[in-house]
Amino acid sequence: MKTFLSIVLTLASVASLARAQNSNCIWIPDVGTGTVTLLGMDGTVRGVFAVGGAPRGAAVDAAGNAWISRLTERGVVRIAADGSRIDTFTAGITSKTCAIDRDGNVWITNQSLDLITKMTPAGIVLGDFPTGDGPRVVAIDRNNDVWLTCKFSGEVLKYDSLGNPYFRTQVGLGPRGIAIAEDGTAWVANLDSSTVSHLSAAGILLGDYPVPASPGGIAVDRRGNIWIASGLADVVTILRPDGTVLRSILTMPLGGHGALNVAPDGDGNMWVVCKLSSTVLKFNLDGRLERRTDLNTLSRPEPFGDLTGALRAKFANPSDDEDGDGLTNEIELGQGTNPFLAIDPSVREGLVRRPEPGTIRALRVSRRSGLHHDQRSAVRNRNQRDSNSAQRAEPQVGRPLQLPRIPPRSRNAANHHAHCAGDARVSDRHPQPHDCDDPGVHPRCRGAGGPWARDHERDHDRRTLRTG
After folding, report:
1. Which helix (H) or strand (E) holds 373?
2. Alpha-carbon distance 261 to 305, whole Å?
3. Nearest to 124 by CA among 93, 90, 100, 95
4. What residues are paired with 179 via a beta bridge?
5. Which residue, among 283, 288, 287, has the nearest Cα to 273 in the 3D structure?
6. What end-to-end distance do the CA atoms of the chain give, in Å?
7. Got the DSSP string for 70-116?
8. Are residues 234 and 136 in the same domain?
9. Which run of H or E residues covers position 21?
């Protein structure tokens, strides 16, 4: 009996380990061979699964299972996290892509029927909802709402979790990929018009931006930059959140031909799948190539969707702790640690949630953290150092000089300290009421000899430069 229990526990440990390892992977469906290839983060092939039916879309659930949509077969298949079994579920026909919501339900686009299907984790169809003409790529946002591109009608549609439509907005020609940003807006790659559209959460068109020919895949990285794969041009374009070009990466010199899709992983790296060369390229956030994997056995890889599960962890299940290390998915993805790999407890205590400099969340942390003034200054200075380091590593020709933000105060040197005068009003920079007779440095701050004095002198110098 004791031996039997030991065997059971050993098998359970092996299954748990396999699930953890395969949760930190990328799934590559191949239309030509009817297979799905599982790659580790080091680019090594961990498994090849025959599913048939021209597989194209992929999504990874919280258990590490991969859901694969197929073009020529009805419904989807589910590959167990450890690769031990493959289940098939029927839903519609010509399934292009799929995505997984907060409750584990799978949303599947059916191009031939112009429908989107909602299915439970057990494979039970909950409903079919009408779409525009030619539904393509589906995505889930943090409110558990469903976004969908429709290629032939040139629309983007949004539904609630019950399938009720919110809006339908015209974008460019042939919209294909769609990516949700941290602020709830959506970015859409328009294949036929070679543009990228930016939509508000309410469906208002915020802007259209030209990109190289045939943009298909699109993703938003941890810094808020937008990555677009343009197949005909063999270019990966990185846009800033304001739509200006940050960097263009030619994939042909790197061994990638026909860049089709972009997918982030749990570490924040960006993976680009190149259809014509059957190559997968792994980039860091600065756009530097980290690894290239040649999949010579594939003939037509066309994967779309959440290929690693990182998007589901970020938007559908942000409050979950999938690796059991005491940190939620949202915290880990925000600070750059992997939500699928547990962190050593001795290291975890020293981690602070600090999103990338320049993001909306970074501003919220610095303003609403409730820290003492000198602690807020340390956070602000650290973010500024990170930002300066990133700018030095990537010089921008012709980029306008950006002066540090100065809090709005009076331009009159005689009364520019009125916000913290002896009327007991408290400023954000000086937590305690105090007198301020010196136009240069607060006497109390000077006497303390602490960081208040240094910060005030620095701001006073900036103000003099600005108003003089």
Report:
1. helix 373-393
2. 9
3. 90
4. 187
5. 283
6. 86
7. ESSSSSEEEE-TTSS-EEEE--SSSEEEEEE-TTS-EEEEETTTTEE
8. yes
9. helix 2-23
The answer to whether position 336 is within a domain reads no
Return the SS3 of 213. coil
Tens digit of each residue's pLDDT (9 = 90 or more) over 387-416:
555 454 444 433 443 444 434 433 333 333
What pTM did the predictor assign? 0.71
Q: Write the CB contacts of 329 (distance below 8 Å, at least 6 apart in sequence).
A: 313, 314, 317, 318, 319, 320, 321, 322, 339
184 belongs to a structural domain: yes
Number of compact structural domains in the chain = 3
Report yes or no on 132 lying in a domain: yes
| Burial class for 380, CB neighbours closer than 10 Å (0-12, 13-18, 19+) | middle
CA distances for 124 relative to 117, 119, 129, angstroms: 10, 5, 15
Same domain for 370 and 255, yes or no, is no
**How far is residue 455's CA from residue 188's CA, in Å, rounded to a whole number?**
43
How far does Cα 262 stand from its chain's mean position? 11
Q: Which residues of 115-150 are buried (b: 16+ CB within 10 A; e: fewer)?
A: bbbbbebeeebeebbebbebbbbbbbbeeebbbbbb
> pLDDT of 131-177, one tens digit each?
999 999 999 999 999 999 999 999 999 999 999 999 999 999 999 99
How far is Cα 284 from Cα 209, in angstroms, rounded to an integer? 24
